[in-house]
Design goal:
This protein is 18% helix and 29% strand. It has 710 residues and is an alpha+beta fold. It folds into three domains: 360 residues, Alkaline Phosphatase, subunit A (3-Layer(aba) Sandwich), CATH 3.40.720.10; 112 residues, Immunoglobulin-like, CATH 2.60.40.2550; 100 residues, Immunoglobulins (Immunoglobulin-like). The strands form eleven sheets. A ten-stranded mixed β-sheet has the order 7-6-5-4-8-1-9-12-2-13, with helices on both faces. A hairpin with a 7-residue loop joins strand 6 and strand 7. Helix 2 packs across helix 3 and helix 8 packs parallel to helix 9. The protein is elongated, with a radius of gyration of 33 Å. It starts with 11 loop residues before the first helix and ends with a strand.
Length: 710
């Protein structure tokens, strides 16, 4: 059965007019002893999209809320990427502590780091997160909208009484799972003409109706997560907008006057971020993204207005905290980048608007706030005990009295991190980094070894990276501070992004990945073993005893480092086919080793070996010349050498006589992987040793044949 709520039938203008009225005087239900809490967590909404000016001009319901809220102007997500940011919010822990670092285990951009809902559940976070804790505190818990992980399993999580989740990023006709409008809980699809934000409001309204009918005096916590203003699944951005807003503000242009937009000089940024300035086509694409992101937010504004109207109508407005934020910020051409994941303010800084029951006027607070601080804040507002192992710090005391705490000393620093690669302008970028954000400074340490440092009071647009100008002592201080942020001693981890397991390889295997530690990983051991011979490769040849190849990361001054090692390698198999089992074992600066990552790869047609023709072994030559013949592998341009030893004296043949020193012969290559060389040996008993090599690669076990000359 489908449910529609009455407020949707009222125009947004009439809604706003009613929302400005105070219905508490005529309400039949008094306020509950503990406050209700509504958290609207948007998807990809940056601080420009919810700036005071934009809100005032385009979002009347949010504007009304804004005028009685505390605006936190220095709030940042700790992982500027949808799913990890939501995992951090719900657990109150940094991703390096909660373990959910990427959006999906299976995504190629995750470069081997963990993420996804099943990983979230494997850490038992589904039983230890904000919804569970609020439920334990006696709240009715409601979740509507985007869930925080990929891999949802059609089960209502333990923390939520009323649960509805949007699956995918379609604004029309999307798939959903709900126990609110569906009984029993199940997946369903909305119609192709039905808009997802309207459906979110329908579900939220139905959940609130259930609450009012069943336990009206019980406090509630509503987590509402619209998809807006995230890009849709479809390439047509017009599908982001509800039909009535599809042509809204047709002449509105993206602001481009800030100096970080299409930044003029990118020479102080890492080399992989430097690209030509934006083309006219790219700017047109950004303009389209700008206007449709704003249009999608018009429906969110309607949603906010409908909720405020409802709260005032039933007398709950004066006992409700209402928060609006976003999982991450967004770049639209700033620093010549777009989307999210990068460490700059456009991606890390998020809007944070908090209205309390006592709020009467707008005020701003510049205190340094982490997105994961929202979890302990809500816990404190609910009067619940905050778990001792949370990383977040409650800012509940600042909501009504921001002036009571010094913004500069409120919180020394927070960490901003990212593990996943990023596609931008048709190119894949290595976007892994750790960054320490101070009140008015930020230090960025990329996995590539690049560093950036910005003084934000004088350089708010992050145009002048002064890290190279700092003294060595200052650089060392920043690096120690960043690496000491992770207080828990852990074993290092390693990812293996190349080669892909099961894939065939050539003469050079490009091993690559990332290493991570609470302080700094310093090296890894690469072990390659032939599954045919069971021998180990030492970088030059194969040997029977265990061998490993040291791999050094790109940097030892940050917790996340990239590494790569192009290993020129060959097989020893006569049929030119082998299977290599490769494993990488990380080691940190305290000597700890971590779990290995491994890959199986086939290799063909790159064997290096020299084999004497079996007919030579035991043969008796007569005559003045003898012909050493054999076969070699298919590695291109390999050289076959051999030497001949007189068995009785141990002396070497030099082509004319015998001598004490080793004398090699170079064989002549023949078609069909054959080789030969004529020699003229005096009568005697001999042993021939044949080997092959190419540059530094060589066959370590010689092919041997014994023969006589009469």
């Amino acid at each position: 059965m489908r449910f529609l709520c009455t407020p949707l039938l009222i125009s947004s203008t009439f809604l706003l007019t009613l929302s400005l009225l105070d219905f508490s005087a005529v309400a039949q239900v008094g306020p509950t002893p503990r406050p209700n809490i509504i958290l609207v967590n948007l998807d990809d909404a940056d601080t420009d999209l919810l700036s005071a000016e934009t809100i005032d001009q385009h979002f009347p319901a949010i504007a009304e809320l804004y005028q009685r809220s505390t605006i936190f102007t220095n709030a940042h997500c700790t992982t500027p990427f949808c799913a990890p940011s939501r995992a951090a919010l719900f657990t109150g822990k940094y991703a390096f502590n909660n373990g959910c670092k990427t959006g999906s285990e299976t995504a190629s951009t995750s470069v081997g780091f963990p993420g996804g809902y099943q990983r979230f559940k494997s850490f038992q976070h589904d039983r230890n997160e904000l919804g569970v804790w609020m439920k334990q505190a006696g709240y009715r818990t409601m979740h509507v909208g985007k869930f925080h992980h990929d891999g949802f399993d059609d089960q209502v999580p333990a923390g939520w009484d009323d649960f509805c989740v949007s699956l995918g990023a379609k604004y029309f006709g999307g798939s959903r799972f709900s126990n609110v409008s569906q009984s029993p809980a199940q997946r369903y699809r909305i119609g192709e003409q039905e808009y997802i934000t309207v459906e979110d409001l329908n579900e939220a309204t139905r959940a609130l109706d259930n609450h009012d009918q069943q336990r009206p005096n019980q406090p509630f916590f509503l987590y509402l997560a619209p998809i807006a203003p995230h890009f849709p699944t479809e390439p047509d951005l017009s599908t982001m907008a509800e039909a009535k807003y599809r042509n809204y503000a047709p002449d509105l242009l993206q602001p481009t006057s800030d100096p970080d937009f299409d930044e003029a000089d990118m020479s102080d940024k890492p080399a992989f971020l430097r690209r030509p300035q934006l083309t006219a086509t790219e700017k047109a694409s950004l303009q389209e993204a700008f206007i449709y992101r704003l249009r999608s937010m018009k429906s969110v504004d309607d949603m906010v207005g409908a909720l405020i109207y409802r709260l005032r109508r039933n007398g709950k407005w004066r006992n409700t905290y209402f928060m609006i934020t976003s999982d991450n910020g967004y770049s639209l051409g700033h620093h010549r980048t777009k989307n999210k994941k990068d460490p700059y303010q456009r991606s890390s800084r998020v809007p944070l608007i908090v209205s309390s029951p006592n709020s009467r006027a707008a005020r701003t607070a510049s205190h340094l706030i982490a997105h994961l601080d929202i979890c302990p804040t809500i816990m404190e507002l609910a009067g619940n005990r905050i778990p001792s192992d949370l990383d977040g710090k409650s800012f509940a005391p600042l909501i009504d009295r921001p002036f009571a705490e010094n913004p500069v000393t409120w919180q020394r620093s927070i960490m901003i991190e990212n593990w996943a690669d990023k596609f931008m302008w048709g190119k894949r970028l290595p976007m892994s980094y750790t960054a320490e954000r101070f009140y008015d400074k930020v230090h960025i340490a990329w996995s590539t070894g690049d560093h950036e440092y910005y003084l934000l009071n004088s350089d708010p647009f992050q145009l002048n990276n002064i890290y190279p100008q700092l003294s060595k002592a200052h650089q060392d201080f920043l690096n120690r501070s960043l690496m000491n942020f992770r207080k828990n001693e852990v074993a290092p981890t390693v990812t293996l992004t190349s080669p892909i397991s099961g894939a065939p390889t050539g003469n050079v295997i490009p091993f690559a990945g990332y290493m991570e530690d609470n302080s700094a990983p310093v090296m890894a051991q690469l072990v390659v073993q032939s599954q045919t011979t069971q021998r180990y490769f030492n970088g030059r040849s194969w040997q029977d005893n265990f061998a490993s190849i040291p791999v050094v990361p790109s940097s030892t001054t940050t917790s996340i480092n990239s590494w790569e090692h192009d290993l020129e390698i060959f097989s020893e198999t006569r049929n030119n086919f082998d299977l290599f089992f490769s494993r990488v074992i990380p080691q940190d600066d305290s000597g700890k080793t971590g779990l290995m990552k491994f890959t199986f790869n086939t290799v063909e047609n790159n064997s290096i070996f020299a084999e004497l023709n079996p007919v030579i072994n035991g043969k008796t030559f007569t005559g003045t010349t003898q012909k050493m013949v054999g076969y070699h592998g298919q590695y291109p341009n390999q050289t076959v050498t051999f030497f001949i030893v007189e068995k009785n004296t141990g002396r070497f043949f030099n082509g004319q006589t015998m001598q004490d020193d080793y004398v090699p012969f170079i064989a002549d290559s023949l078609p069909n992987r054959r080789w030969s060389k004529r020699v003229s040996l005096p009568p005697g008993e001999y042993r021939c040793y044949a080997q092959a090599y190419f540059n530094h690669l060589y066959q370590s076990k010689s092919s041997i044949a014994d023969f006589q000359v009469r």
